[in-house]
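Contributing new complexes? Match this layout with shikimate-3-phosphate.
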Amino acid sequence: MTGRSQSIVLIGFMGAGKSSAGKALARQTGLPLFDTDEIVSKRFGLSVTEIFVQLGEEEFRDAETEALKQLAEAAPAIIVTGGGIVLRPENVKMLRGLGRVVSLEADEETLFRRISRRATRPLLQTKNPRATMVELLRLRDPLYRAAADVRLDTSRLTHDEVADAILKSLEVP
Ligand code: S3P
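Output block (do not edit by hand):
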C-alpha cells in the first residue's frame, strides 16, 4: 500500500518514459509533480545539457542530490528522477525514504528510438550513441533493480496505461 504521506518515485533509464508517466500519474491522482532534472535546471538557470557542458557532471550530480533532500518536504507527490539518480547510494537511500520506488524499463530498441527523438541527453553525445547507451544500461540495470519496489516494462504501453499499471501495482485506489 502507498500510505497517504508517501510519494510515488519514478526511476529508470533515459527513454523509459518517466516524464510522460509522471504527468499521467499526476493527472490521475491529483498529486503535485516534481522532476529532479527541472529542479536542477531551474536552480542554475541552464538546461541539463548546458549544466553538463559548462559546470560538469559532478556539479549536476551534487545539485541532483540537493534536489532530493528538498523533496522530502513535498510528500505526497509524484517524483520523476533523471536516469543517473541511482548512481549515488545516498540518493537511493533518500528515494526509498520518499515513498514507493517504481523502476520503468523498456527494451533496448524502444529506449533508443525514444531517446533519438530529442538530442538533449548530454551523456549520449558520443560517436556511437547506441553503443554508449548499451554500456550505460549494462552498468545501471542492477542499480535500478536494487532500488525498486516495483518494476514495469513500458515498451508496449501508452502513458496512461503505464500510470494505470503503476497505481494497480501499488494498490492505490
Ligand atoms: C541522465 C539522464 C537525464 C538527465 C541527465 C543525466 C543520466 O534524465 O538527468 O542528462 O545520467 O542518465 P532523463 O532520464 O530524464 O533523460
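Reviewers usually confirm one structural detail per submission. For this one: The two ends are 10 Å apart (CA to CA).
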